[in-house]
Design brief:
The protein is mainly α. It folds into 2 domains: about 25-55 and about 360-530 and about 540-575, MetI-like (MetI-like fold, Orthogonal Bundle); about 80-345, MetI-like (MetI-like fold). Helix content is about 70%, strand content about 0%. It has 26 helices and 2 strands. The protein has helices at about 1-20, 25-50, 60-65, 70-105, 110-120, 125-135, 140-150, 165-170, 175-185, 190-200, 205-235, 235-240, 250-255, 265-290, 315-340, 355-365, 370-400, 410-415, 420-430, 445-465, 470-480, 485-495, 495-510, 515-520, 530-540, 540-575, and strands at about 55, 60. The protein has a two-stranded antiparallel ribbon with strand order 1-2.
Length: about 575
């Protein structure tokens, strides 16, 4: 019996060694997923570069010459740089300050403040921009009306249809990126150096300025870059607030190049500087975040003592809630008011109360029901296929299934450096002509969303797989299971929470997307974001408010659902 046992163990070891290295019958699935991912990224980018170098005469640099010599194009580039810079600066000021207050002080209501910052993050910037047209429009804006009533002035307090107004609104929905980065760093910084500074007589603000700020500086710079990139690639807010004032950005200028007759060559050439700028800034951000030594002084286990605000707790809390009122409370309130009002600019009294806006938006307006159906169809389909593809790619890269597998990470994260409107230009060029014609159908939007949201799903799946040891997979391989079976029966159930989160994040990204949709939709494939943009042109304020509330409600339902499931699984794991 011992001899048999020893022989069996030896055979098992040999089988394990051979099984893990022998041909896997599921290899075609892994190679197919890898090729599909590479095709998603290569075709649109290749089409953009090719189109940018061609005109009616053939290969030429005339498109680039036109981009960098035409006054309108140069003005759009300059406006984009100025707006993005100030948005980035305001974002790190607001986000960095709030992050420090939430993580390093005894500020009350911290969980509520974090939740409200998340609400600002979830709010689509184009919806926030629309809400601020109702709040700070120069004529009928609610805040300007209130200012005139209180002061008797005939002038507006604030005109949102200006460069300053556009920067202000975009910053309100970009600062959560800086908040998240700085808060994560401040949570790790030990209080040892801060305590030493206080012992030496430094005041609280001087300690924060000379100790905490330098330690968090890489996160602040990274937050600036992310906010800059967010502003660089946005279409909705510049279109809603900038175009009425004659302010063009790169994204709105590309959009105008698609008007009849479309100039795809110029649109492609105009997309390249935006793409290169994004790639450069992402590379810089990764280099900055690659420096790990800045985040902690005493190690992860170092003590972190809160700064006592003393008598300043209440004023600081009012300041924080004031910032959140600008990004959450006031916009949400004006949307609710407009949704239930006959005339949104009038007080919400019983005589002005109505449900007709819901009836019109959901049942009478011809595009709405089809748009809602398309949005949820695309959201569910993209989230499902995207999660599946992201799972396969993350598994390939994490387990290094074949030579060069780790290079797939680059392709999975590539859409991070491709602004949505640039991606739309490439997809239009590829799929508006044979051999594969998808333009005019809902499927071009599906391909666009799948490509754009891939980094979200991949990052979530990859981080989940890294936390799962391979021993159970190896055991299933020893008894004859192939890689795909091991993933389905062993790894995926263990990674359930992370994969559900990936599905939900992709779904939310799809239903709030505008920059891709605005170039690729057809009359039969409109989505809710495009309908909201169209309704803005028609002046249907109440209907926009209804659809905006619907979009926000679905997003928050998904976010809280994910949070609840993750918390439940965490509790189950601890038990």
């Amino acid at each position: 019996m011992p001899a048999v046992g020893t022989d069996t163990l030896a055979n098992a070891r040999n089988r394990r060694w051979l099984g893990l290295r022998a041909y896997d019958p599921s290899l075609l699935v892994w190679l197919g997923a890898a090729l599909f991912l590479v095709g998603l990224m290569v075709f649109p980018l290749g089409a953009i570069f090719s189109a940018s170098l061609r005109d009616q005469a053939g290969l030429s640099l005339r498109n680039y010459v036109a981009v960098f010599t035409h006054d309108a194009f140069l003005a759009a580039i300059w406006n984009t740089v100025i707006i993005s810079f100030w948005v980035g600066l305001l974002s790190i000021i607001l986000g960095g300050l709030l992050a420090w207050l939430v993580t390093r002080t005894d500020l009350p209501w911290k969980k509520a403040i974090r939740a409200l910052v998340m609400a600002s993050f979830v709010t689509p910037p184009f919806l926030g921009a629309f809400a601020w047209t109702l709040l700070a429009g120069p004529n009928a804006g609610m805040l300007n009306q209130l200012y005139r009533t209180l002061t008797g002035s005939e002038n507006a307090l604030f005109n949102v249809f200006t460069m300053h107004g556009l920067i202000f609104v975009m910053a309100l929905y970009s600062f959560p990126y800086a908040f998240s980065l700085v808060a994560n760093v401040c949570d790790l910084i030990s209080s040892d150096l801060e305590d030493a500074a206080i012992i030496l007589g430094a005041r609280k603000l001087r300690t924060a300025w000379t100790i905490t700020l330098p330690l968090a500086l890489p996160a602040l710079v990274s937050g600036f870059i992310i906010a800059f990139l967010q502003a660089l690639s946005l279409f909705g807010a510049p279109a809603i607030l900038g175009l009425p004032a004659g302010i063009h950005t790169i994204t709105t200028q590309i959009w105008t190049l698609f008007h009849y007759p479309p100039r795809l060559d110029l649109a492609a050439a105009f997309s390249i500087p935006l793409l290169l700028a994004t790639m450069s800034l992402i590379a810089l951000q990764k280099k900055i975040l690659g420096r790990r030594g800045f985040s902690t002084v005493g190690g992860k286990g170092g003590q972190r003592r809160l700064v006592k605000l003393g008598w300043g707790r209440l004023p600081v809390l009012v300041l924080v809630l004031g910032v959140l009122a600008l990004s959450v409370f006031l916009p949400y309130w004006i949307l609710l008011k407009a949704a239930f009002s006959r005339a949104w600019a009038m007080p919400l009294e019983w005589s002005n109360f109505t449900l007709n806006n819901f009836n019109f938006a959901l049942f009478q307006y011809s595009d709405t029901r089809a748009a809602i159906f398309n949005t949820f169809k695309l959201g569910i389909l993209t989230a499902t296929v995207g999660t599946l593809l992201a799972t396969l790619i993350a598994y390939i890269t994490n387990r290094n299934l074949f030579p060069g597998a780790r290079y797939l990470t680059f392709f999975a994260l590539a859409p991070l450096v491709i602004p949505g409107i640039v991606l739309a230009v490439g997809l239009f060029i590829v799929y508006a002509q044979p051999p594969i014609v998808l333009y005019g159908t809902i499927w071009i939007l599906f391909v666009a969303y799948l490509t754009k949201e891939m980094p979200v799903g991949f990052s979530q799946a990859e981080s989940t797989f890294k936390s799962i040891h391979t021993e159970l997979e190896d055991a299933s391989r020893i008894i004859g299971a192939n890689r795909l079976t091991s993933l389905k029966d062993i790894t995926a159930p263990l990674a359930k929470s992370g994969l559900i989160a990936a599905w939900c994040f992709i779904f939310i990204g799809v239903i709030r997307e505008l920059s891709v949709s605005i170039l690729l939709f057809a009359p039969t494939s409109k989505v809710v974001s495009v309908v909201i943009f169209d309704l803005k042109e028609e002046g249907q304020i109440g209907a926009i408010a209804v659809l905006g509330i619907l979009m926000l409600a679905v997003s928050f339902f998904i976010v809280f659902g994910v949070r609840w499931m993750l918390d439940r699984d965490l509790v189950a794991t601890r038990e």
